[in-house]
Amino acid sequence: MVDVLWLLNTALKDLFSRKTRSILTIASIAIGIALLFSLISLVNGVESRSATMIRQLTSADIIIRNTTRVDTSTGIPSPEGTRGFIRPITLSLINESILQNIESIESIYYATSLLTTQAYVDETPIILQGVIPGEYELVAGSLNIINGRSLSCLNCPEVVVGKSLMERLNLSVGGTLTITVNNTQVYLNVVGVYESGVQFFEMMNVYVPLYFLQNITGRVGLVSEILIKLKNPGDAQSVASYIQSIYPDLRATLQTAQIQQASQLISTLTTFFLTIGLIAIIAGGFGVANTMLINVFERMREIGILRAIGASSRTILLMFLTEALVLGLFGGVTGICTGFILAYILPNYFPIQTASRILPGSRAFGGSPQITQISITPVITWDTIMLALIIGVIVSLLAGLYPAWRASRIKPIEVLRHG
Amino acid sequence: MDNLIVKAENLVKIYQSGKVRVKALDGVNLIAHRGEILGIIGPSGSGKTTLLNIIGGLDKPTKGTVFIDNTEITKLSEEELVKFRLRNIGFVFQFFNLIPSLSVVENVELPLALLGVSRIERRELASTTLRELGLIHRANFKPSELSGGEQQRVAIARAIITNPKIVLMDEPTGNLDSENAKNLMKFIEKVQEKYGVTFIIATHDPIVVRQCERAYILRDGRFIEELNGQAAVNKYSKL
């Protein structure tokens, strides 16, 4: 039985003796692997980003909304660079009095209400989050205030602004943020700056006291969402079902369900990209098979000599499979390195744009939907690296199987007789 | 079969090509003694290579038997023959047939690698053999960097590295000039003396035949005579 090191050494020397062909074969595998690796890393990035964003939005266990659609009749032209018409979907609001009934449910630890509406800073759309200071933090988690303080009153023109927006507007704590709501200019005192780590989130969301927002938008007693924190998060499903049975017009969504929905979408994306990558790798596999077959035909005499001096058909099979393995490994490693670079370059050329089309409580809003560019940072994990490497090696081995089998069937006498 | 290492009896080999039947060997009987240099002499197409291939277990006879050191190799299966060849038979071909991507020392240690000998041990054995045969200075050269005579000597080193019972050589000087052919035969004598290997050489080169202790004269697939090397040269120098 020949040893592995000898097989590897022989394979390397043979591939090295046919440099150009070997490099081209490695490249054919590497292209597929690079594509697969970069796409998976980017999808991982999107997944990680979306999960962070959902968690940033709220850490409440249940979110209650009124999903009855209103005013979907007006189509407005899409912003420049996008196609067709976008119909802003606005949702009905919830009567704040429901909150008291919901709070009486035994399993609920705390509940608070939230009014969300769209406003403009200059011409840039932002989302005003009207919250009840103190309560909001209990349910949705504290904002990470890095400068100044949190909101402290229920009905005063205070605002907490995201770090990114502050930097863009060149504002500082104690300054004034001028916004436009319902074509009316409103001046807000900047009392604090929060940091979320997600630039998109910091640019979009500013926090104001709930009652102040209700007053300036003429929605007194109305809220967009009721956020619920449970004593035991494990009860989320049963509590959500119970609330929906009492209020059939409302929809109780679990935060886990939102993450699951995003994951499902991402899973579909992953499958799609994985398929594209696999097709590219399979094409590379044909390259390996072709190279290996040419190798076998060119080395017929060499194989005949090896068989004559005592190499078993199994040894010949192993020799060629080792070559396929080496090609797969080199192709895999080269592909991973290239994919690593691609994963960081691609997002610059193909930025992801999102349009916020569902805006709870934006009944009065008449502008175009927000188009925001999100930069995606690829998430590269050992799992992705190993997956890419294993796929490269497996495809290469499968591609090498037939040529290796052909080589192992060569009869020395036939080769030696015919030269 | 005490002193006999090879015994071939009534070997017949018929090739069928479409409707044409070619009788390459027709009732050949051959014996080889331990440690001798035996020649099989004949013109092109006389059946020398076919006989060598059958003795070496590369080909099966249509009829007849071959014993090598009491093992009837004509009864062995394909994979059994592979193992048998690895341990008992060395081959040297006209076109040297070294592996071009491997160095001289790697070519020489090839049969040891196939036997599963450890890397250190096989490198030591190959280096020792190359040193003994005066080739150690070429150990790390590629075959393409050697002369024809040197390549053939490396092929011989590869053939004897496993200490086989017989070494079969098919026209070993066919690609060499007369000076290199003479040097090669001196080299074969040196190897035979040193290692006591039996050489069976198919050739029509008088330089080789002269060095053979015995020579079978083969014509049209039949042995027509058995002579010593010098007598064979004198009688059949125009073969």
CATH class assignment of chain B = Alpha Beta
Which overall shape of chain A is indicated by the principal axes computed on the Cα atoms? elongated
Look at the structure and name the CATH superfamily of chain B.
P-loop containing nucleotide triphosphate hydrolases
Tally of alpha and pi helices of chain A: 13
Radius of gyration of chain B: 18 Å
The rough form of chain B would be described as globular
Lateral arrangement of strands in the main beta sheet of chain B: 6-7-8-3-9-10
**Strand order in the sheet with the most strands of chain A:** 13-8-7-15-1-16
Average residue pLDDT of chain A = 81
Task: Quote the beta fraction of chain A.
Answer: 15-25%
By DSSP, the count of extended strands of chain B is: 10
Nutshell version of this structure?
The complex is a heterodimer of chains A (419) and B (239). Chain A is an alpha+beta fold and 419 residues long.
Provide a descriptive summary of the structure in words:
The complex is a heterodimer of chains A (419) and B (239). Chain A is of the alpha+beta class and 419 residues long. Chain A has helices spanning 4-17, 19-57, 98-103, 135-140, 163-169, 199-204, 210-217, 236-246, 255-298, 300-309, 313-349, 382-408, 412-418; strands at residues 62-66, 69-70, 76-77, 85-86, 89-91, 94-95, 108-121, 124-131, 145-148, 158-162, 176-181, 184-194, 205-209, 222-223, 225-230, 250-254, 352-356, 358-360, 370-374. Chain A folds into 2 domains: 4-50 and 262-418, no CATH class; 60-255, no CATH class. Chain A has 13 helices and 19 strands. In chain A, the strands form 6 sheets. Chain A has a 6-stranded mixed beta sheet with strand order 13-8-7-15-1-16. In chain A, strands 9, 10, 11 and 12 form a 4-stranded mixed beta sheet that branches. Chain A has a 3-stranded mixed beta sheet with strand order 2-5-18, with no helix packed on it. In chain A, helix 2 runs antiparallel to helix 9 (255-298), helix 2 (19-57) packs across helix 11 (313-349) and helix 11 packs antiparallel against helix 12 (382-408). Mean pLDDT of chain A is 81; it is low at 71-89 and 354-371. Chain B is α/β, with parallel strands linked by helices. Helices cover 37% and strands 28% of the residues of chain B. The chains are: A alpha+beta (419), B alpha/beta (239). The A-B interface holds A 1-3, 5-6, 9-10, 13-14, 16-17, 301-302, 305-313, 315, 412-413, 416-417, 419 and B 49, 53, 56, 58-59, 79, 82-83, 85-87, 90-91, 93, 95, 97, 99-102, 106, 110-111, 113-116, 118-119, 158-159.
